[in-house]
Amino acid sequence: MSRSLVTVQRVDAGLQAQFIELWITHRIESGTTPEAAGRLAADGTLRNALGRKDVTAFIAFVDQRPAGYVVIADTTRSLLVAAPSVSIDMLYVHVDFRRQGVGKALLAAASRYADRHGCEHLVSAVPAQDREANRFFARLGFAPETVRRVTSSATLQRKLSGEPRSQRYSLDKVLQRRRDVRARAAAAPPPRVVS
User: Fold this and answer.
1) For the chain, where are the alpha helices, taking DSSP H only?
2) What is the pLDDT of residues 104-122, one digit of tens each?
3) Is the whole model's pTM more than 0.90, yes or no?
4) Domain boundaries of the chain, sorted by first residue
């Protein structure tokens, strides 16, 4: 069986509807309800993001069917280093087209884009728990650079203010309290029965 031809095109106004359809599928696959994904797509945020000068998206087709997309942004790797880079914000391949070269074709388009814009590096944030994605990027030469950690501003402010920790107990403390209660109950004299 011959391998299907994968083609990649930059997302323009004519391809936005197909991109958004794939994006909705991606969101649903990630656990968002179809209704919520549809609302997110309909509010105009995606179209506005695709219209920004620093955001570029490519869509892949297999036998003229939308198969996946990559969204990239022009960035710098660090505020202290002025070298421009391309950040891969989203990479998605529809489940029906995986292991057919779609991801590689999308990354090749991102790499060509980086070259044309004088960007020496491509950067991708890959979830630590996604072993398959990490292996995929590692095989293509992406090396781990940092670990990004996330918190809410409220949590950070609470921690910085020195607010005492909540009165939660560790499992060891809970078990010790239970043992102490049982020991006191065992050591107490039996109740007297009055007849």
Assistant:
1) 16-29, 34-42, 45-50, 102-116, 131-139, 153-160, 171-187
2) 999 999 999 999 988 888 8
3) no
4) 6-146, 157-187
